[in-house]
Every structure is written in C-alpha cells, then in structure tokens.
TrEMBL record:
Entry GO CC: ATP-binding cassette (ABC) transporter complex
GO molecular function, one term: L-cystine transmembrane transporter activity
Keyword Cell membrane listed: yes
Organism superkingdom: Bacteria
Segments passing through the bilayer: 29-53, 201-218
Protein family membership: Belongs to the binding-protein-dependent transport system permease family.
Keywords: Amino-acid transport, Cell membrane, Membrane, Transmembrane, Transmembrane helix, Transport
Naturally occurring in which organism (per UniProt): Terrilactibacillus tamarindi
Full protein name: ABC transporter permease subunit
Amino acid sequence: MSMFFGNITIDWNLAAKSFTPILMGGLKYTIPLAIASFIIGLVIAFTMAMCRLSSIKLLQWIARIYISIIRGTPLLVQLSIVYFGLPELGINISPVNGAIIALSLNVGGYAAEVIRASILSVPKGQWEAGYTIGMGYFQTLRRVIIPQAMRVSIPPLSNTFISLVKDTSLASTITVTELFRRAQEITATSYNFLLLYSEAAFIYWIFCFILSIIQNIIEERLDRYVAK
C-alpha cells in the first residue's frame, strides 16, 4: 500500500518489511558496539584522567596530547586511520574491531575530562578525611572520592553514551552492518531514501529515548543513595 503527499510516495509495505532488518542491525551491532566501546573507553578515560591529575609532568603531557588529538580530529577520520591506515603498517583489523578501537579511543578522549572534572569537584577535605583515618591515596580515591565523583559524572557520561549510540552510524563507512548500514543496503535496491532513512532515524530516536529513561532512573537512585 502506498500513500501520496505531493511528489512524495510512502510505501507502507516497504516500511513494514524493512523495519525488522534495520532494527536487528541496531540490536545486533549498534547497541553491542556502543556498549563495548563505552566500557573500554571508560577504562582509557579513567587512566588519562589520573595521568592529568598526576604530579608527574610526563604523564600529564601524554594525557594532554592524547586528549587534544582525539578532541581535535573528526571521529570519521579516526575510524579511517584505524581501519584503512593501520593495514599499511601490517596491522589488519576486522571492521567490527576497527570500529570498537576507534570509538573507544574517541570516548576515552572526551570522557577523560569529565572524569577529571568530577574528581576535582569533590572537596579537598574529603581527601584529608581519608588520610586522617589511615587510608592511603588509592584507598581514599576508591572508597571516598570515586563514589562522590560518580554522582557528578553520571549525567555527562550518560550523554556521552547516548551520543556514542548515534556515532556508531559512522561505522557504516567501514562496512559494519549496523543500523544505518542496513538502511543503506535496503535503500540501494528500493531507492526510497526518505522513507528508509527516516525509519532509521526513528529507531535511533527510540534507542536514545529508552537510554534517557534509564539515565533518569540511575540519577534518581544515586540521589537517594547520596541523601542517606
């Protein structure tokens, strides 16, 4: 069945037929890709944040340079360097692994500053309190500082993850068959660009809407935890 709006034709049969393959591309690749990249990226981000907070100048500069490079170059360029550039050095990477590496490095660069700022937001008196009761630096960091910094970092990190879900669409450029790639493949045979790309956009929106709800729930629970 088709509907006409001016010069635009909406093929509802195509929309219904293509919805499941596009959705499965999101469930099979987009979400797992985002989760894996985010987890690895957080490890990188925490490491870089601690380097930035370190009293060792070399570590500070390594972190500064890394963050500057990541934040100063487009994600698409980073993906291209990892997937198309590294094979020239004899390092061959599969599309999925290449996407995870590039996305993780990108998350690490942006989230590092979020984590650093969150740690710095905790009053210095909390460090002194930890030292007073006999805790060392890492014990104080783990038991006193990080739990308080988490409440501050959750909103921006959640936003980073939601943005990452959308950024996975760039993985289509290196042939990862995620959500947007599936829409492109179907469009290549039907040539119904507006319908299929709008359908892909709708599914992205659904994913991000659900993630926003989860973010709000986590924030509310953290608020109750801190209030106790």
